[in-house]
Specification:
Elements (H helix, E strand, L loop, with lengths): L5 H18 L4 E4 L4 E3 L12 E3 L2 E5 L11 E2 L2 E7 L5 H5 L1 H9 L5 E5 L5 E7 L5 E7 L4 E4 L4 E4 H4 L8
Parallel strand pairs: 2-5, 6-7
Antiparallel strand pairs: 1-4, 2-3, 4-6, 7-8, 8-9, 10-11
Length: 164
């Protein structure tokens, strides 16, 4: 997200570094916030509603793309959003619903707070039901079994100063 706060940028970088180091040598890779992700119907006449930007994503196996430009990802497994006051409602609502409707590969959604050390996780079950987990406090650890990785809150929120 352009114009993000220091906390937002730090948290996002920490998540990308943590995931990247854990996934090195595995069939999954972490993608930066510059990768577009499908979030709407495919319409060759209009790109409107076709994609969104996430703060980070993970794709496993071979990435699939909308076209030969390879800039709209069709098969992320994990999508991460670092919450901002201006986008939190959209990230929690319509954006999540669009991703879940259009991305069969999408199994994990992580929301990172910028106001407290808190990670929220939505995991898609085989029945297409989403299960919610919230981990709070710097001693916490969010385990992402679908990817075989974990996010320790001390790493995710390192060098972030929260207002008291």
């Amino acid at each position: 997200m352009a114009g993000e706060s220091l906390a937002h940028s730090t948290i996002n970088a920490n998540i990308i570094i943590s995931l990247g180091s854990q996934l090195r040598g595995k069939p999954c890779r972490v993608l930066s916030p510059n990768m577009k992700i499908r979030s709407g119907a495919m319409d060759d006449r209009s790109m409107k509603g076709l994609f969104s930007y996430a703060d980070a994503s993970v794709v496993c196996d071979e990435p699939r793309f909308y076209d030969k430009q390879q800039d709209v990802l069709l098969n992320p497994k994990l999508i991460v959003e670092v919450l901002s006051p201006s986008t939190e409602a959209f990230d929690r609502g319509d954006k999540f619903l669009r991703y879940s409707a259009y991305l069969d590969s999408f199994t994990d959604y992580v929301l990172a707070s910028t106001v407290a050390p808190r990670l929220e996780h939505f995991a898609r079950e085989a029945t297409n039901r989403w299960v919610y987990t919230c981990v709070e406090g710097l001693d916490g650890c969010l385990i992402l079994p679908n990817l075989g990785v974990s996010l320790t809150l001390t790493e995710v929120f390192a060098r972030v100063i929260f207002a008291t």
